[in-house]
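Journal club side-thread
Mid-discussion, someone asked how the predicted structure for our own chain would compare to the paper's figures. Pasting it here so we can look after the session.
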Amino acid sequence: MHAMQYELTLPADYDMDIIRGRVARVGHLLDDWDGLGFKTYLMRERGRHGSPVNQYAPFYLWNTVEGMNRFLWGGAFQGPVGDFGRPAVRQWTGLAHEEGRGAPGRAASAVRRRQPVPDGVELAVLMEEAVAETRRLAGEDGAVLAAAAVDPHRWELVHFSLWEHDTPKAEGDLFEVLHVSAPGRDRLPRGRQW
């Protein structure tokens, strides 16, 4: 499993209905993308739910590197690049994925929490804690799924959770979910990834 996200931070006075309209027009294009576990089309709106910015920030869990590469290098990613410029694309190696009891079609919000992996910690212990947190989040009422991943170059841990409601039981940046494409969600490996 591979996690990926890019963030398009938009001007403070940007009409976020443009993003909503864009996702309504093109969101379905990845609904059957081979190699994709799921993509959540995420948005934050300045002043709403504590967001300091207007931002479009899709989050992906990939089943295969080939599917991810086909998206990035095969032409699909050129759409947002052509419209907004080329963003930095963050990638993390999967640590854990757990399914919640919520329905993906009813996902209303997502929470992403990034945190540095501090120097001097025992990596095995910290990663087991991330796996346990993933399990805890997925077990909460209204959780659709939860995942954790790590970038060992930047030593950054990311926790991601998807929720049926706007009041998730998770800490981090809160996003509105505009659409979910989940062609390979049932094939994403569950539990600890090593």
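Post-session note: The first helix runs from residue 17 to 26.
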